[in-house]
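Most newcomers find our protein records easier to grasp once they have seen one. Sequence and backbone structure share a record, each on its own labelled line. Nothing more is needed to start thinking about how sequence determines fold. As an example, a complete record with its sequence and its structure tokens follows.
=====
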Amino acid sequence: MGTATVEITLSADVLPALFSGHNGWQLPSGCLALSTTTTVKPFLTANKVLHSRVWFLASSGEAVARVRSRTGTDSYQKFYWVTAEGVRRIRLQPAGPDEFGLPPEQWTDREESFYPRPPQLTSMVPVSEPSLLFFHLTAQPTDCRIGSTLTVFNKKQFLQVRLASLDADAAEIQLPGNNLLGKNQPSPVHGIRLVSRPLNEATEEREEFSFLGLKGEISMVVDDASGIPLHISGSLPTLGRIHFKLKEAITSVTAANPVNSGHTSSIRK
């Protein structure tokens, strides 16, 4: 038992200094950043906050860099670079109790890893990232038809994620008020079930697909017109099966920040 909330924002954003200073790597032009923050509040254990920010090409949804972090127990920060050869990662975490209160840049437990592309995944195949499914659904709906697939880098493995059909009952979706998505009446919806498999079938340990911290059987109900997910279901290790329902969706455009859209979902369990 407990509560969990997730907030998603899309914006033009700058890279942390570690990226620019890593072997002269530079962010390609035409990139946007999508951030997700999942806050888990169990009743009997400590709170956890999972944060992910991915930079991607706005023209294709192809991921180019990512930062994942967790605060609370077992804090960490992980940096990822997506290249034609594979994905490079740097993991930082406190080396001991003396570093628990220090900022991540002062943590001394550091590990570097490289995950090569599977042989069948050529450099011409764009690689996405789990949270970018929000971008594909809303900005590239033709890429997210039932039966379509996306190639994503999860945590340590390249996965193929297929969008399978799911029966959705619109009557079960409780829309909070008439102003949601700027509509007076609920629009038609469709259900999606996420089915994943590793691209490297020979791997000894298969990695479980993770989306917004959710694992297991992940499904969603999507608004037909906008592509915005209204309802997302999955499992969290500390809460069990949960159901996120859309609370608010905001889109704003300014001269300083041409793209800034927010998507906030919350659930009580």
Remarks:
- The longest strand covers residues 240-252.
- The helical segments are 17-20, 133-139.
- Residues 95 and 148 are 43 Å apart (CA to CA).
- The radius of gyration is 19 Å.
